[in-house]
Specification:
Layout (H helix, E strand, L loop, with lengths): L1 H23 L4 H5 L4 H51 L6 E5 L2 E4 L2 E4 L2 E4 L4 E7 L4 E7 L5 E7 L5 H41 L1 H20 L2 H20 L5
Antiparallel strand pairs: 1-2, 2-3, 3-4, 5-6, 6-7
Length: 245
Amino acid sequence: MSAIWWLVVVVALGMGWVGWRLAQFPGGWAYAFHEQYRADREALEGARGAVRQLKGTARRELRQAVTRAEKAYRSRISRVEAELRQLRKPNRGDHVDQLGQIVLHEHALLVGDDEVPLAGLQVRFDLARSTHVSYVYLTQPDGRERLERFAGDEFPEDTVRQFSVRLQNAAVAANQLQSLRYADIHKLEAELQEAQEATEPVETARELLEEMRARHGSDPQLPKARAALDDACDVWQELTGRRPL
């Protein structure tokens, strides 16, 4: 059964190819297949191929022009969105210092497993002299407060006090950096809106398309190739009495 099926497929494909060949070179079997008319067939097919090639080149260049414009459009939006994500939620940055469970990074504190942003943080030092225990109070922008305890036998008062000052100075620097970051965010938001509206990229794409159409429309090669194809069709019609499509 399988062999018969394959035979049917081969016969169908062969018949399809014969039909296509007769349509391409109309006029009868001899004109489509005999060696006597090979040069005539090659002349007709060569004229057809020249037109196909020029049309294909035009379409390809138009597609490439659109692709370049779209790629530039997407690339600009992706770049701005990535910069905005980084500014809106900066990473904690490099490790700077540590005391007990408090780990100071460039843009945040790690207190145990919790991350606390530096911007807007208030730091206060306190000392229980009777027990020689130092306390560091961390007040977050939303008002929540954390308390870290440092025993004097392990963490001398002066060490804890200096660390507290360093935390407070880091928070002040983070506040200043945040103000600059907000200004950059506003600029990038405006740029993103402009990019998403896509006025400039779309206009550029249209200009490129029109330029390509105009160039190919006025290109003398394509009209010449079409004229040559018409001549080849005329010759074939005179030879066979049938005009190719």
